[in-house]
Amino acid sequence: MIKVNLLSPEKKDISSSPGDTAVFADEERESKLNIPAVVSALVLIFAVIGILYFLQSNNLDTSRKTLEEKKATLAEKENVLKTLAKLEQTRKMLDRKVKIIQNLNAKKQTTVKMMDQLSRALPEMVWLTNLKFNNGLLSLTGSALSNNMIADFINNLKSTNYFFNIQFKDSNRKKVSGVDVFKFRLKCSFKDISEKKGTV
Predict the structure, then answer these.
(1) Domain enclosing residue 46, as ranges
(2) Whole-model pTM above 0.90?
(3) Residue 3 counted as domain residue
């Protein structure tokens, strides 16, 4: 007896193939993936990354501003130190000038007082021809009409209490216009005793 299969081969293959059933099941599973959840997770991740980047950028900007402020403060301090150094140099220079002026004034006052005391001690008929005064040391030459007048001059210097260590060097007699003249040399020290008393 002859059997004829009247069913179409395509339908038979579809209904009878077990492998094709498994493929349809996998496609169904893939279509069931939760796409909104994946998108939300990605958005959350990007949001966290953005927040971290923003915070890090703020921290970096703050650090840069702090660094710039510290650099500016350091520059100001360096300028102040340079100014102070210049002022200190100027002060020292002015101090030196003031000391020089004070020394000159002191020497001037000492010289004036020395000349005053010297003129008071000078007897009549005794005159000075040369005088050198440096650091309290006095060297002088003069002329007198006699050795007794020279002796009076030396005694007068001693009595002033301004002249010390008086040394009589020599005396030479010479004729000047027919008159005997004694030329002499003296050395001594001068000390302003008013400095010890604190008077001017």
Answers:
(1) 18-121
(2) no
(3) no
